[in-house]
Amino acid sequence: MRTFRISIIGFGAVGQGVARSILSKQEYLNKQGIDLQVVGISDSKGCEINETGIDIEAALLRKKQKGSVAVGSGNGLDIIRDVEHDIVVEVTPTNIKNGEPGLGNMRAAFGSGKHVVTSNKGPLALHFSDLKELAEDNGLFLRYEATVGGAVPIFNLVHEALAGNTVIGIEGILNGTCNYILTRMSDERMPYDLVLKEAQELGFAETDPTYDVEGIDSAIKLVIIANSVFSQAATYKDVDVTGINKITPEALELANKNDYVVKLVCEAREGKLTVAPRLVPKRHPLAVGGTLNVASILTDLAGRITISGKGAGSIETASSILSDILYIVRNSKS
Q: Which range marks the domain in which residue 12 is found?
């Protein structure tokens, strides 16, 4: 039995999803000869540390009842620097302005000899090359499948299953909120403001939906794709971005009459990065509805490979995080 000790830095929806996934998969993992021990959990109010393994069920219950996992003072950095473990699961909220606190957490992890698995888009959108280099210099893994597409395994597909292929271009729908809004507007002929309100009530859209509807979230994800897949040094400023907030039901109805749907499409090709509403034929692989995400990858050898799935949700995102954890477990020399 190989024991790997992990910390969960950030215990919001995704962090709790990771904890639940580890809990539910313990029997499966043990059959694989793997024992994952959570030895540190932090949220914005404090942390819990137990070097022999935290009672995950008790931590989840405490978070639900008290709003915090904290049983003592300290923060994520304290766990990363002072608690002996192997993998830091960095799932604090995305901050696209300066990447903190995730950026500092990741740097501290690599500086103290720990692998990083993350869903945090901010640090990777701002400092992808620096973080990748820092990990490699220290002989460590940086895994980030959960930053783009939720449960959709874009990076694993490109870097592992399609290894040896040259990726010519990638296009996709990477924001479930926008896809939901456009689908409802088209299907029900509802105005944008009304559908946005519905999406907020259902929890698909934030109270402030700016990041989603103006295409910012999609652009950030496209930057990570460009840097990871095409080895670019792209930033948000390199993306030509148009959101969906000016699309009318009339425009969608006109598209529908001509057998098209309107989708917010992200595209990376030949150094060009764009996020914009586009007409998509109804039978095209990108014409997925609701909150689904989709990525269509054009390669020289395999041709076009298209994958689709749930692009958000705590358990769905945790699925990608658990996959990355297991990659490290199986490929680490420690």
A: 2-150+314-331
